[in-house]
Amino acid sequence: NSRLIAWLESEGGVYLAESSTWGEAPHPLAISTETVDEITNESSGRGLLARRSINDGDELLKIPMDLCITRKSARKALGKDALQDGINEYLAIACQLIHEKYVLGDESEWDAYMGVLPEVEEVNPTFTWKDEDLAFLDGSPVVAATRSLQMKLRREYDALLGGQDGLIAKFPDRFPAEHFTYENWVWAFTMLFSRAIRLRNLQVGERLAMVPYADLINHSAFSGAFIDARESGDWLFKNGEEEVILYADRGYRQMEQVYISYGQKSNAELLLLYGFALERNPYNSVDVTVSIAPRTAALAAANEGIEVDPLAQEKVEFLASVGRDQTVDFPCYADRYPVEMLEFLRLMMMTPEDTRGKPLADFDYSRTISPANEAAVLSSVVEAVKYQLNLYPQSEEDDANIIKDKALFRLLSYNQRMAVRHRRNEKRLLKRTL
Fold first, then answer.
1. For residue range 155-188, what is the model confidence (pLDDT) as tens digits?
2. Domain-located, residue 280
3. Which Pfam families did the record assign (predicted)?
4. C-alpha to C-alpha distance for 349 and 346, rounded to whole angstroms
């Protein structure tokens, strides 16, 4: 931490001292090497604390853009012939992270920053979990999302770096195979997903950036603070340079942990990308899959006992016209009904008695169509949610008993404890939907 602070001060002129100096107020924040979740008592890694009382609207930090790692800095470090114009920001920054940490090491100008970046095991997003840990999430939609992301990362590594046309083969001096391994690729994306910040007010538009020091701040679903960028200098004299800036969204007591918002993310997203889930999360949701095959004449002919739906072909065409598939994942929330699911099912449950000759496109599916249609819709919602609940090998009560037995619960690994809490919260949310 001291090396990072010294580097920020010497290379970027960032004032982080607790005492004031000419033209600079005392810096309001201090690095905590270990923070703890107030509800679960689990470690939440490093964080930033209020060094003194902070008021709503106070400036908390400003970091020069020159100290940030971006696609622009990656192309400068590794060559524009290798990382060509238009390369995906995540891919470019991942390459620079590997370059700085593993290729250059202590010769990197970002060495002090690399030194505070955690290892994969300290973050533990689900896409890095072992199969035995992921098995604790059986039944949860997080498993499919995890497998999908794992395959995507592998494909992108192979496409950009591997093979005869990859950067390792083309530029072996800049992309040495012993350092640009898939293991290090996963580390780089663990850093990106859990720490990179999308800055929206830059002169060139929004950009993704790794922002030293600012990325130490932890997430709260109840925070309204977001890190952004602005042109540096005072209101009268702008110098054309840009800096990352953060203001307090509320007051903080001395030694209270300061939070920002990573966005309105469900626990599934947080666990997948950040390696943690929240016990209290107003944005939590569980995806429920609804798949309905309209009873077309072809389907009825192939399956004895299925009656033809006279509106089947029109439903298929209507779904295509609005960009919907016949299989859709809908989020169910704890505090509201799945409106999008209801609209989808109202369409799929339409009968000739409901349409009375009118085309399906003429109806407002955000409203009740008919008592019979609404009854069929609600019955389908219940069926879909019950089906999702039945995918879990354990009941909510089983999970509650595991958590309640503190001695047994502590025998589980961190990942396994997170998984048990997460699957229990998913089941509770689904039951509330019923």
1. 999 999 998 899 999 999 999 999 999 999 999 9
2. no
3. Rubis-subs-bind, SET
4. 5
Query: Residues 231, 339: one domain?
Result: no
Domain extent, residue 222, equals 2-273
Residues 312 and 341 both lie in one domain: yes
Would residue 136 be called left, alpha or beta, if left means φ above 0 and alpha means ψ between -120 and 50 degrees?
A: alpha
Same domain, 297 and 344: yes
Please give the pLDDT value at position 433.
87
Rounded average pLDDT over 236-245:
73
pLDDT in tens, 282-309: 999 999 988 776 666 666 566 666 677 8
| Structure-block tokens of residue 386 | 């019950």
Regarding whether 190 and 123 lie in a shared domain, the answer is yes
Beta strands in 196-268 (DSSP E): 197-199, 207-209, 218-219, 228-233, 238-247, 259-260
Is 214 domain-assigned?
A: yes
Q: Number of folded domains in the chain?
A: 3
For residues 102 and 176, membership in a common domain is answered with yes
Tokens of 125: 């997003």
Looking at the structure, tell me whether residues 235 and 367 fall in a common domain: no
Position 278 in a domain: no
Domain's final residue, options 273, 306, 324: 273
Q: What is the pLDDT of residue 238?
A: 56
166, 124: one domain? yes
Instruction: For 296-321, give the DSSP string.
Output: -HHHHHHSTTPPPPTTHHHHHHHHHH
- Rounded CA-CA distance 332/141 in Å is 12
Q: Are 189 and 153 in contact (CB under 8 A)?
A: yes
pTM: 0.90
Helices (H) and strands (E) in the chain, counts: 18, 11
Residue 15 is encoded by which pair of tokens? 């004032």
Q: Among 372, 378, 375, which Cα is nearest to 434's?
A: 378
Handedness of CA 341, 283, 45, 66 (dihedral sign): positive
Residue 147 pLDDT class (50, 70, 90 cuts): very high
Check: CB of residue 248 under 8 Å from CB of residue 60: yes
Q: For 53-109, how does the pLDDT look when each residue is reduced to its tens digit (9 = 90+)?
A: 999 999 999 999 999 999 999 999 999 999 999 999 999 999 999 999 999 999 999
Based on the domain organization, do 150 and 24 belong to the same domain?
Answer: yes
Mean pLDDT of the chain: 91
Contacts of 322 (CB under 8 A, 6+ apart): none
What is the model's pLDDT at position 335?
Answer: 82
Measured distance CA(203)–CA(228) in Å, rounded: 12
Residues 174, 360: Cα–Cα separation, whole Å? 59
